[in-house]
Amino acid sequence: MTNVKLLLMPVILFLLLTLPSCTTSTANTEGERFGEFLDAFDDAIQLFVNGEPEPFMALWAQQDRTTLAGGLGGEIEAGWEAIGERLIRVSGMYGQFDQARYSAHRVAYGFGERFGYLVQQEEIEIDDAETGTTATRFYRASMTFERILGRWRIVHRQADLHVVEDGGLRD
């Protein structure tokens, strides 16, 4: 549990310092726009896990300071060139299977004038017709968004396999 607290501390500190006026209300126009972005995000990941990375890639800030700590491990990627290559590679890995289904449970989200955030649990079910099996992966994900030229863009994504307290994977 201590490791989880250590991982969440930078996110909490970031939110306290940069998002003092965050709201989760979708009653106003800005809230509706943020909600539409999150819906587009879900749609794009559904395509991503079925071997179509382009819609998901279009939601990213394609800048040198953009970062990704992906759910399959490996290095923390920094910069759009490295992130773009990784997204294409990972989407291709998922695309090898017959069908994948993505779903998410939003734990918390909010936004201010320039930045937004999302914390959620994600589930990806992958069907393999060759073996007749379905594999399910559960991830914990947190993302930071920035409004760039009036549009929300992903500037950081961190995801990891959901591990239960006894040390085993949730699935």
Written description of the protein model:
The protein is an alpha+beta fold. The chain contains 4 helices and 6 strands; from the N terminus they run αααββαββββ. It has helices spanning 2-18, 29-48, 54-57, 80-95; strands at 67-69, 77-78, 99-111, 115-128, 133-148, 151-161. The protein has a 6-stranded mixed β-sheet. Strand 1 (67-69) and strand 2 form a beta hairpin. The longest helix is centred in the first third of the chain and has 20 residues, at 29-48. It is globular.
Describe this protein with a few key phrases.
6-stranded mixed sheet; single chain; 171 residues; globular; 4 helices
- How does the major sheet shape up? 6 strands, mixed
- Overall morphology: globular
For the secondary structure, the number of strands is 6
Rg, alpha carbons: 16 Å
Percent of sequence in beta strands: 25-35%
The side-by-side strand order for the widest beta sheet comes to 2-1-6-5-4-3
Tell me roughly what share of residues is in helical segments: 25-40%
What is the H/E order? HHHEEHEEEE
Structural class: alpha+beta
Oligomer: single chain
Put simply, the count of helices is 4
Spans of at least 5 consecutive residues with low confidence = 23-27
Average pLDDT level: 84
Q: Helices and strands in order, then pairings?
A:
Layout: H1 2-18, H2 29-48, H3 54-57, E1 67-69, E2 77-78, H4 80-95, E3 99-111, E4 115-128, E5 133-148, E6 151-161
Parallel strand pairs: 1-6
Antiparallel strand pairs: 1-2, 3-4, 4-5, 5-6
